[in-house]
Structure prediction request, 218 residues.
Amino acid sequence: MSKIAPSILNADNMNLGSDIQEAIDTGIKRFHIDIMDGHFVPNLSYGPELVKDFKEAFPNIEAEIHLMSNNLDVTIPAFVKAGADLVEFHYEATDQVEKWLNYLKDHNVKAGLVINPETPVEKIKPYLDLVDQILVMTVKPGFGGQSFRPDSDERISQVKELITASGKNIKIEVDGGIDDHTAEIAKNAGADIFVAGSFIFKKGPIAQQILKLENILV
Ligand SMILES: O=C(CO)[C@H](O)[C@H](O)COP(=O)(O)O
Ligand SMILES: [Co+2]
Prediction:
């Protein structure tokens, strides 16, 4: 299974279905859908209708929701109802992390916890029994096309150590500024899943860009 989760944020909105299909044709099984609420981050993106349409069009492909919202009472139930396969929300967005991780488990949706670059890595420790995935942000959330932060490899290694010590099977995902150079840095630090947006959708033919990443990640 591909370790790459393309972020559609920088895909061509007027040709979104065909951009997604082109990526699927290379073997992609999961897409990363960035939800920005204009409040937790200073940008706006998609709503639950997009996720519903995605699942209708591509029922066998995973929709991973990166929820950049602090209005979780509204947004988590809405994206669960829309058919999300995995929802990852920010540690920084709520003081009810445990409640929302349990909500996702109760609804048979995989649960991820996201940490921003400034958040101490140890903050994830109390939640390792409840998560399927930890997303280590490698840029400040809110915009595509930023540069991978140079302290990211150390943070990924620290998350890896915490997960190994816990004995749990939790995936580490990285998001922000991933290309065929930074993917290798993140991989060597212990990342399992690689989100890439502008590298896949803006820097060349989609299939060719995915292949460049696959070659690094084998
Ligand atoms: O969560 C995100 C931004 O907040 C995006 O997933 C991320 O930025 C991907 O885009 P790129 O690969 O262009 O950095
Ligand atoms: Co994202």
